[in-house]
Amino acid sequence: MEEHIRALWPMLTRAPPARTSAERSSLISLPAPYVVPGGRFREVYYWDSFFTMLGLVRSGRLDLVRDMLDDFASLIERFGHVPNGNRTYYLSRSQPPFFAAMVGLYAAATDTAHALRYLRALEAEHAYWMDGAPSLSLGEAYRRVVRLADGTILNRYWDDLAEPRPEAYRRDVELAAAVPASRREAFYRNVRATAESGWDFSSRWLRDSSNLRTLRTTDLAPVDLNSLLYGAERLIAALLVRRDRPGDGAAAARYDSAATARRSALLRLAYDPGTGFFYDVLWRTGERVVERPTLAAAVPLWVALATPLEGRRVAERLQREFLRPGGFVTTLIASGQQWDAPNGWAPLEWMAIEGVRRYGRPGLADTAAARWLALVRRTWRTAGRMMEKYDVVDPARPAGGGEYPAQDGFGWTNGVALALLARRAR
């Protein structure tokens, strides 16, 4: 399987298209080669790429990791953010902000000095997510930033357009036909915001877990999004200190202060002491969505945001309720959506496994990794393919649900598999 994955990298790598070809396409030209996920996904996707990079590092392809970082920095310079993918119809939204994690991965594999070239892009992307924050009144939102009634600033997913997605136009129009005309724009906005989350779709975002028309993504301050931004703020502060130019010390202090404030808010608002778990927050009321526990609760552990006690309690619940024969299940609700039970996804497996390991549960981490790798290897031996997602509840069944059949390829599964195998070999 490992040889198969390494042989896939050239097949999944795309060179920048010729200018004349790019002008006749929706594809946004990039300056350097990049890796696509595979299957129906023939362009680079933002958050997928971090998990792909995990495997590229283990394959000795730091050159390709740097190429992709240069591509993302180029997108930020041109558009102010990394789009969902390098297609023109994705420009109105981003995806979970993993650029800082990518830079940190590259720095760890090389030297921190190599990360400094991306500092301007990191700050520009952070500004994109925080656009409008200073002018918000209590209980207001603007694009991707919200101010709660107590003055807390957090972030949400959003899309700058309120219309059907071009990549799923017919499906969106058909769904919206049963939505009252007065609420149709809000429905489209929520569909697109959910696409920005990467979890499209999941009961996590629904008022009614059986009805996709009840999406409320823009009403939520997601715990994973805000954890990722906390990590970005910490990294930017550290890189500013390392660069040490005039004014960098004061700028670093601002980012560090923002990270501290965000962490304090998440510990106060997203963590529930009664159940020992992190949840998304309804930003208008400050309520935790405790009826929707998801594997997103592991992300505060992955970025080292949780306290030791909180980390242990989250790990205990992950073991008790989310660990299944094939690894960690995404949610506890089987809604028919792909980001729900019984499915498991490589990015969430990685963050949950490494998150519980960070908080003193190496045995749980090793068990979950072994189960996930066994499932991935069994599927590869049977079908000869690496899949986008897997059924972790019944490993004998193929994963399903969602808008399209399970895809093979597959970038983030390849990357996480190699990274977990490399850790096991140490």
Structure, explained:
The chain is mainly α and 426 residues long. The chain has a domain at 301-426. The protein is built from 16 helices and 14 strands. The strands form six sheets. The chain has a three-stranded antiparallel sheet with strand order 3-4-5, with no helix packed on it. A hairpin with a 4-residue loop joins β7 (271-272) and β8 (277-278). α3 (46-58) runs parallel beside α5 (99-109), α5 packs across α10 and α10 (223-243) packs antiparallel against α11 (248-269).
Instruction: Write down the oligomeric state.
Output: single chain
Uncertain parts: none
**What's the number of extended β-strand segments?**
14
Order of helices and strands: HEHEHHHHHEEEHHEHHEEEEHHEEEHHEH
How does the overall form come out from the CA principal axes? globular
> What is the tally of helical segments?
16
Main pleated sheet: 3 strands, antiparallel
Task: Write a brief structural summary.
With 426 residues, the protein is mostly helical. 49% of the residues lie in helices and 8% in strands.
What's the topology here?
Layout (H helix, E strand, L loop, with lengths): L1 H11 E2 L4 H5 L10 E2 L10 H13 L3 H18 L19 H11 L2 H4 L3 H12 L10 E2 L2 E3 L5 E3 L13 H8 L7 H14 L22 E2 L1 H21 L4 H22 L1 E2 L4 E2 L2 E2 L4 E2 L10 H4 L5 H15 E2 L2 E2 L14 E3 H13 L3 H22 L5 E3 L19 H15 L1
Antiparallel strand pairs: 1-2, 3-4, 4-5, 6-9, 7-8, 9-10, 11-12, 13-14
Helix pairs in contact: 1-16, 3-4, 3-5, 3-16, 4-5, 4-7, 5-10, 7-10, 10-11, 14-15, 14-16, 15-16
